[in-house]
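Input record, target 12 of the design panel.
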């Protein structure tokens, strides 16, 4: 790694640590840094319970979801050989919304309908877009340019 990459990676890790610390401090019951240190040192069990039971899982879920979104974006960009590929440009979100609209007229009283219909519409569109023949034709077309 170059010196510039090391600096940028260090800055990203530092910003991550700062954002985790700020998210530990903020909430319905705001904490100061000294309260967080005293809670983790075992002096205040009520604060420790709030930090460990409520805020730490929220932070962990945010980190996992952010990582999953980053990986999904990288996969879609590498699959479609397009640096700008995201669900809205590819039409996946539009297809999910369209299926929600159509299914809302056809089957109006179905539990969890919007979430399921959006998933089905987006999944079908993604399957169509990632079909082998379509991908081969797009790669051949991009190589001709």
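The sequence produced for target 12 reads:
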């Amino acid at each position: 790694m170059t010196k510039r990459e090391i600096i940028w990676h260090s800055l990203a890790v530092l910003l991550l640590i700062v954002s985790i610390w700020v998210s530990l401090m903020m909430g319905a019951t705001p904490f100061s840094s000294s309260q967080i240190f005293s809670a983790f040192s075992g002096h205040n069990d009520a604060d420790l319970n709030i930090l460990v039971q409520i805020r730490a899982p929220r932070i962990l879920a945010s980190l996992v979801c952010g990582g999953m979104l980053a990986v999904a974006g990288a996969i879609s960009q590498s699959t479609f050989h397009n640096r700008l590929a995201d669900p809205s440009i590819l039409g996946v979100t539009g297809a999910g919304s369209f299926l929600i609209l159509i299914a809302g007229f056809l089957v109006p009283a179905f539990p969890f309908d919007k979430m399921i219909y959006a998933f089905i519409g987006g999944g079908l569109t993604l399957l169509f877009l990632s079909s082998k023949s379509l991908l081969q034709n797009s790669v051949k077309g991009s190589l001709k340019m």
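The helical segments are 3-25, 33-40, 45-79, 87-90, 92-106, 113-129, 132-144.
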